[in-house]
Design a protein that fits this description.
Length: 229
């Protein structure tokens, strides 16, 4: 699996923002991506992550609200890798789009599950996670194990459904890099999300049969770096 940080840095280079670049990451966790991104301004949002460089220890909803009223930050690249539930990711995408600079990019993680079970959203897994958060008293951020003791079955969640929905309902330029398990959405010069039709179904109506490799414009990591997209 290739590193998303390489993709982010390449996008910042394409924008020619080496000296005045701005980057937002939702879901920093251990900081494996955040610490490798080369941007002048970097903001990381995560209420539970163990990485000491997290700049905003709050939920994404709280950050977007605070930014709307007070911070007024705008970004060239936003990486969304928090809670892997399509319903939440869709809201985060809409908020991120509103604070994205022209021609900026949003990257959604975990959008190319390798098998059907990897896209499950299982109640018991999220309840176990929340139980660990409360029992470890995460306000101190010292002892919480970032990786769960037992492997998550649905480790990608249903993030891919957001990409499928955006392809069906908008005119946005979207590519999925399958060997990095992420999707890139380019804002272009749109001031708001360019919807071309209403949503025909809810995320719970999607099935694994709706996962369409060709429709998601899947490309390889190598093609991305050879600028074939």
């Amino acid at each position: 699996m290739h590193q998303v940080s390489q993709i982010i840095n390449r996008l910042l280079e394409r924008l020619d923002k080496k000296k005045q670049s701005s980057y937002l990451e939702i879901g920093v966790d251990r900081g494996l991506t955040f610490s490798e991104v080369k941007a002048e301004t970097k903001h990381g949002v995560d209420p539970y992550g163990v990485f000491p460089g997290i700049t905003h220890r709050m939920t994404s909803q709280m950050y977007f609200s605070m930014n709307y009223y007070f911070y007024k930050h705008k970004y060239d690249v936003v990486f969304i890798d928090g809670c892997h539930m399509a319903y939440i990711i869709e809201q985060e995408f809409k908020e991120a789009f509103n604070i994205l600079n022209d021609n900026g990019y949003i990257i959604l993680h975990d959008t190319y599950p390798s098998r059907e079970s990897a896209q499950y959203v299982l109640q018991e897994e999220y309840e176990r996670y929340l139980k660990n958060v409360h029992e470890e008293k995460l306000a101190h951020h010292e002892s919480y194990p970032s990786e769960p003791e037992t492997e998550w079955i649905g480790y990608n969640g249903d993030s891919w459904k957001v990409v499928s929905s955006l392809i069906e309902t908008t005119d946005l330029e979207i590519y999925t890099i399958k060997d990095a398990c992420c999707s890139i959405i380019k804002k272009g010069n749109f001031n708001k999300i360019p919807y071309k039709r209403n949503k025909s179904k809810n995320f719970n109506d999607y099935t694994w049969n709706d996962f369409d490799d060709e429709a998601m414009m899947s490309v390889s990591f190598l093609d991305f770096f050879n600028e074939k997209i």
